[in-house]
Specification:
Helix content is about 45%, strand content about 15%. It has about 675 residues and is α/β, with parallel strands linked by helices. It has three domains: about 5-290, no CATH class; about 310-440 and about 475-530 and about 565-595, Spore Coat Polysaccharide Biosynthesis Protein SpsA, Chain A (Alpha-Beta Complex), CATH 3.90.550; about 620-670. The strands form five sheets. It has a seven-stranded mixed beta sheet with strand order 3-2-1-4-10-7-11, with helices on both faces. It has a seven-stranded mixed beta sheet with strand order 15-14-13-16-19-18-20, with helices on both faces.
Length: about 675
């Protein structure tokens, strides 16, 4: 991967502020990666793949796809050459990269200074950052952030003035450094201190002071002179290796994954604190850049080589439990003869939530759940459609053609549905030919638009604005879509879709834009693949649905393959809603059941509070006066008008009359 930062070289820096007269000490800063991330790579920043020897084995992030492993091989050195402990990375974490640098120092050209940063935390040498800021938390790491905070032009002067660069002290959230260490679990810190007393007694006083401090030197990052680095490695591996050997002897190493890495962070803090206390070294503390998102866009490759069923949907922290239920329904209806490649489009979903969703596929070798971060796509295309909130799970569907470049087709699902059939049947069912998409006809608009009943736009809107010549036969809904990606890419689909949105003011933006761009290139699916629940506006629309459509809907509702729930009347809000029992059938099987129940209770409480507040407002004198005036106004208008206008005003008069009766009844109840 190429980025602006990767173009910075040491000669560029020297030609600036310092000219050609002074050549600074040489420096190499290792940047440890265990998965793809924003790449820092030049003469000073040396990316290193920590744990390359075990890269194809299970880790805290699951199994890395081959594509991601290849990226690591293509862009950096590994810690598995020469003398190394790369196979122990699951226990030592980034310290396997430090060990490699210690034992293979000549392969780094014997620099005067050596440092360690991580793919997700970096020193920033920018001089104008206030002293109170120990850490900076940009939402993401991209070229602009790297150019502002990770440029190396200030580093040469620091290397000339100081022997060691360390992170600024960071306050412990609660208690002392030792309390924080113990909160991570019983990670043999007492054994480490016992080894320190035995082998490095000069460090004990600094260790006790540091561990009882309320501020720590965290992140396990540093830059130090070569001789200090060798001393550091002898000290830290002189403690970590005996702890590792003890765990192996006691056959407890699998209970101690990453524990040596946690201990190393504390031991590094003690070493840095000791260096400060000795007052023999010139030490400079600088802020740490801690981006919340360091992910990069890699082309998404199919995870299965045969019988693959590609499925995608959008998720965020607000709907993740509902997405979990949807995934449960997909998995429960899957067939062993097919392989299900499930890609969840997200923007900043936490690792904890990702782990919960990935756990749903445990024990199902034919199912793989992966994630794709759409942040950069949102940033790139957001200005094209300023009126559309692209950072919403439903709108991640805009990017399907760009994300699935190496796929021929993919099923795209809305989050407010439940699956009750094998999606492999849908995936392989249709001969798409030159069609962009296969979708289900939208029954919701047919009756209301034909009859003029309800709040839907009129027929001319769908014909003239949306561009669907026969909306009662061709207009489709977008809760369930089967994309023909080969044809979409030929037609520049994403650009056409964004242009459609930018140039029109649609009633339902994504659905109307999809119908406009795909007009004439749609294959209609059996309507059982997206059955509307009979609630809300849809319930009213079904009353005026033509008879043959109504009969088909009744048949589908008895045997739905997919149910599309009406917004605002979903099962998690209304457990007694139409077809809700199907959703709860899968919800009970999911690990999110209790969380969903608690959320539902909270929703009911908020609705009750909102209703109570509205009731109190309706009893106020101004509100009652307003009802009185409107009731009598529409009574007069109904008397003097004729035809449809009279019927309209009669309905309004009756509505306000009923509201006045309700208010009078509430007043009597409260006396």
């Amino acid at each position: 991967m190429k980025n602006k930062t990767s173009q910075i070289t040491r000669s560029d820096e020297l030609n600036g502020e310092y000219g050609q007269q002074w050549y600074p000490p040489s420096c190499k800063i290792l940047v440890a990666y265990h998965k793809p991330g924003y790449l820092l790579k030049n003469e000073i920043y040396i990316p290193i793949h920590a744990g390359r020897a075990v890269a194809r084995e299970q880790s805290k992030d699951g199994m890395l796809p081959p594509q991601e492993i290849q990226w690591l091989y293509d862009n950096m050195i590994g810690d598995d050459t020469g003398e190394n402990i790369s196979t122990r990375n699951r226990y030592y974490s980034e310290m396997t990269a430090v060990y490699w640098a210690w034992k293979n120092f000549d392969k780094l050209d014997n620099p005067d200074f050596i440092g360690l940063n991580h793919y997700s935390r970096f020193f920033t040498f920018k001089p104008d950052i206030p002293n109170k800021d120990a850490r900076l938390y940009p939402s993401a790491l991209d070229d602009d952030i790297a150019e502002e905070y990770l440029t190396l032009k200030w580093l040469p002067s620091l290397l000339r003035e100081y022997d060691m660069i360390i992170p600024r002290h960071f306050p412990v959230p609660q208690g002392s450094v030792y309390d924080l260490a113990l909160n991570r679990g019983s990670y043999d810190y007492d054994d480490a201190l016992a080894l320190m007393r035995e082998k490095y007694p000069d460090y004990i006083e600094a260790a006790e002071n540091y561990l009882h401090s309320t501020k720590g030197l965290f992140c396990n990052i540093f830059i130090m002179r070569r001789e200090l680095f060798f001393r550091y490695c002898e000290y830290i591996f002189g403690i970590l290796k005996p702890l590792d050997e003890k765990a192996r002897r006691e056959n407890k190493e699998h209970e101690k994954l990453r524990r040596l890495g946690y201990i190393a962070e504390i031991l590094t803090g003690i070493f840095l604190h000791q260096a400060i206390c000795e007052r023999k070294y010139r030490v400079k503390a600088v802020p740490v850049l801690y981006p919340r998102d360091t992910s990069i866009l890699l082309d998404l490759e199919p995870i299965f080589s045969q019988n693959s069923v590609a499925i995608t949907l959008g998720a965020n922290s607000g709907n993740v439990h509902l997405i979990g239920v949807l995934l449960m329904s997909i998995i429960a209806n899957s067939s062993i003869g097919n392989n299900y490649d499930l890609v969840i489009m997200e923007n900043g979903l936490s690792n904890q939530l990702k782990d919960q969703l990935c756990g749903l596929s445990d024990g199902h070798r034919h199912i793989k759940i992966r994630f794709y971060n759409v942040r950069q796509l949102i940033k790139a295309h957001g200005p094209d459609v300023p009126t559309i909130k692209l950072d919403h799970p439903e709108n991640y569907r805009f990017f399907v053609s760009d994300i699935f470049k190496h796929y021929s087709r993919v099923i795209c699902l809305n989050g407010t549905i439940i699956v009750n059939a094998d999606l492999a049947e849908l995936f392989h069912s249709e001969d798409m030919n030159d069609r962009f998409v296969a979708a289900v006809q939208d029954f919701a608009i047919i009756g209301p638009v034909k009859s003029g009943y309800g709040t839907y736009p009129s027929q001319p809107y769908y014909v003239e604005i949306v561009g669907v010549a026969h909306p009662f036969d061709q207009y489709f809904q977008t809760d369930v879509l089967l994309f023909n990606l080969d044809e979409m890419r030929k037609g520049g689909f994403l650009i056409s879709l964004l242009n459609s949105l930018a140039q029109n003011s649609f009633a339902t933006p994504y659905q109307d834009a999809m119908n406009q761009v795909c007009a004439g290139r749609v294959r209609l699916l059996d309507s059982a693949w997206s059955v509307m629940s009979r609630e809300g506006k849809r319930k009213q629309g079904l009353h005026v649905l033509p008879l043959h459509h109504l009969e088909k809907w009744n048949q589908d509702a008895r045997y739905p393959r997919i149910v599309s729930y009406c917004p605002g009347v979903e099962p998690w809000i209304r457990p007694d809603a139409h077809l809700a029992e199907l959703w709860w059938h899968y919800a009970r099987k999911s690990p999110f059941y209790e969380s969903i129940m608690l959320s539902g209770i909270n929703i009911q409480i908020r609705q009750f509070q909102k209703k109570e507040t509205a009731t109190l407002r309706s009893l106020s004198v101004p509100a009652r006066t307003r009802l009185f005036i409107l009731h009598h106004l529409y009574m007069i208008l109904a008397f003097i008008c004729r035809g449809k206008n009279r019927d309209h005003f009669v309905d309004l008069r009756r509505g306000y009359a009923n509201q006045r009766k309700t208010v009078r009844r509430l007043l009597l109840q409260r006396k």
